[in-house]
Automatic annotation (TrEMBL):
Protein name: TIR domain-containing protein
Native organism: Arcobacter venerupis
Pfam families: TIR_2
Lineage: Bacteria, Pseudomonadati, Campylobacterota, Epsilonproteobacteria, Campylobacterales
Sequence ranges assigned to domain TIR in this UniProt record: 12-103
GO biological process assignments: signal transduction
Coiled coil: none
Domain of life: Bacteria
InterPro entries referenced in this protein's UniProt entry, alphabetically: TIR_dom (IPR000157), Toll_tir_struct_dom_sf (IPR035897)
Length: 241
């Protein structure tokens, strides 16, 4: 069986001041209880003769995690490391970025943790695909970020996806003849979830009228697929609010 972190719903980097350690643990534990891998970065071995490795390690770890949680506090705002981590992530539009007010966490714990609830809902994505199409797509960001597929449990997955992210629908010439696709498409449309179409070839979007007016992914865009997905989800969140 895979280690639980390999099956995590998302990978979170917690940016924080060491002075907030005990309160940051509350945030970390809450995320882990909900199936997310959350990292509080501190390595004793980097405190002495290996300090020069710290920046490279942190940058590498942040790049591998799709969620960045800033644990904001008076001490965090004084920290050069936290400032650098925040600036690094702000340049990467593909990251899900959430700020937790550590001072407010002390008095209004539920209010601050509710921000994580919203984060966790939007960080899980499911997609419908034709297997051959998926094989062509498997080396993209979606694969690396461990986005689960629907397989033969479509109804269960779609029900779970309600208000929990998006359904990515891969559209291609091959999919037009797949009977199972049309039934899964109807299931997806029946659920209250965000659908994001991805055109993989020169298939005409008019062949899929239900998706015609939806914002879709352009695989030939200079913007990465992951960044496009994040932008669409952010716009949808803003509309709902």
């Amino acid at each position: 069986m895979k280690h639980w972190e390999e099956r995590a719903k998302g990978w979170v980097f917690l940016s924080h001041s060491s002075n907030d350690y005990e309160n940051v643990k509350i945030v970390r534990d809450y995320l882990e209880e909900n199936g997310f891998s959350a990292l509080m970065f501190y390595l004793r071995c980097l405190e002495k003769d290996k300090k020069h490795l710290r920046k490279e390690l942190i940058e590498s770890e942040i790049s591998e995690r799709n969620i960045f949680v800033l644990c904001d506090s008076y001490d965090a705002r004084k920290s050069d490391w936290v400032k650098w981590e925040k600036e690094l992530v702000e340049k990467d539009k593909s990251k899900i970025f959430v700020t937790i007010d550590m001072e407010n966490l002390k008095s209004e714990k539920c209010t601050e943790l509710s921000k994580l609830d919203k984060l966790m809902k939007r960080s899980t994505l499911y997609f419908i695909y034709d297997y051959d199409d998926y094989k062509e797509y498997k080396n993209t960001t979606a694969k690396r970020k461990n986005i689960p597929n629907l397989s033969d449990k479509t109804k269960i997955a779609l029900n779970e996806t309600k208000n929990k992210g998006a359904v990515l629908v891969f559209l291609s010439q091959k999919i037009l003849d797949q009977k199972w696709f049309w039934s899964e498409k109807e299931s997806a449309l029946e659920e209250n979830t965000l659908i994001i179409p991805i055109l993989l070839d020169d298939v005409d979007i008019n062949e899929f009228p239900a998706f015609k007016n939806l914002k879709r992914i352009n695989i030939n865009s200079e913007i990465t697929i992951e960044e496009q997905i994040t932008l669409i989800i952010n716009e949808n969140d803003a509309k709902d609010n």
